[in-house]
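Recap for those who missed Tuesday's class. We walked through two folding examples back to back. For each one, the amino acid string is listed first and its predicted structure tokens come directly after. Nothing is annotated here on purpose, so try labeling regions yourself before you check the end of the notes.
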Amino acid sequence: MRKNIILCVYCLAALLISGCSREKLPEVIDKTTISVEKDGRISAYVVEDFDKEYYNISELTQMAVAEAGEYNTKRQTGDIIPVSIIKAQMVADRNDKAIIEYQYDSAETYTDYDYNESEIFYGTVEEALQKQLDLNVVLYHIKDNTILSKDQLMADKNRQLIITDERAVIYCPGKVSYLSEGAVYNADGSVDTAKAEGLVYILLK
């Protein structure tokens, strides 16, 4: 009985750690996908072309692990590992695409990581202002396309905001209400930034 109780506690803890956005992810990921968790952690599923005969998934894994290890050696200050390589494998039913799953302890680490060419901010409107991020942007409601003015945005500085120049499918830690131009709201609640130009702003409810 005691073992069963302990097992249940571990299962519950795993669910809490994983975050709600991870549950939305499709079973097969075939394009670069970002999942932002409520606690700020980021899971990145990076899909790359892997269509040469000499490409080797084991070598790709070793390279990714080595890069993360090099970064962690320079940046890790406590028990929390900044960048983890969860796994690397071929995309399901594809022999020309590989996917590497990374986990970052924060959006700041994602932006700072030496091998990323993009950046992500996740926090409140107030925190974005404190970081002197440009909030002079036009946002459109995902349902009726009505515009949210800057004054309206500033009226509630506790709302959560994601800002990124990443071109990917983004799963958010809450429901999306407004997007900047070029970003597309998908039926499953994710946001596709592939056709956007410049920074993408995602305002959560």
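Example two. Treat it independently of the first, because the proteins are unrelated.
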Amino acid sequence: MKTENIQEKVVVITGASSGLGEATARLLSEEGATVVLAARRADRIEALAAELNGGGGKALAVATDVADRQQVKDLVDKAVETYGRIDVMLNNAGLMPLAPLEKLKVDEWDQMIDVNLKGVLYGIAAALPHMKEQKSGHIINVSSVYGHKLGPAATVYCATKFAVRALSEGLRQEVKPYNIRTTVISPGAVASELLEHISEKDIQAATAKFVNQIAVPAATFARMVAFAINEPADVDVNEILFRPTAQPI
């Protein structure tokens, strides 16, 4: 597809140190976007930024913990200060430490709420003032197939991802006066580091066995992001749900 609507857009990507975020940064950079890479692992995003810049792209790495509102604000402000605007905010960072509720892994519940939900809200809070002033912009939030259905041992994770879909629809309705587009993307089984967050080893092993048999590459997600961004300004791709063809649930 022609991707002229991606060229020269300034795209902020959280969770850019691996998996879906890294793949998206690579694809959008190839298509001519300026990418601002955010993650806690500074060495990873700095290496990626150096690689993209060395290949003729434009990339900036900003170490960021999305659970810290000020850090997310500083991230977006740095993007605008450096490049003059923000065209796309991709709220991608996420955690999935699956466990039954009866295990009472409250610290993990808090982590998921802080990263998967509050991290998205902080991204919106940071980007929205700039996009309102510009009268343009695109906020992309990442939910999951688990934002559409429940699974055993995934109750809190599902709750955060259902919430991301709800707040994305509310955002969509509220930002119409400012010419801002919104998209929520719900991936199925995609190859990433997400399973590494599961502390229950039996659940991790069973989930990995299922996912590894059917998972599609992270580049699949990147193409979904690129599709939504590349549509003309008068087209608002509000929701994308995708799974591997072989995924039954």
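Answers for example two:
The beta strands are 10-14, 34-39, 58-63, 88-91, 137-142, 180-187, 239-242.
The radius of gyration is 17 Å.
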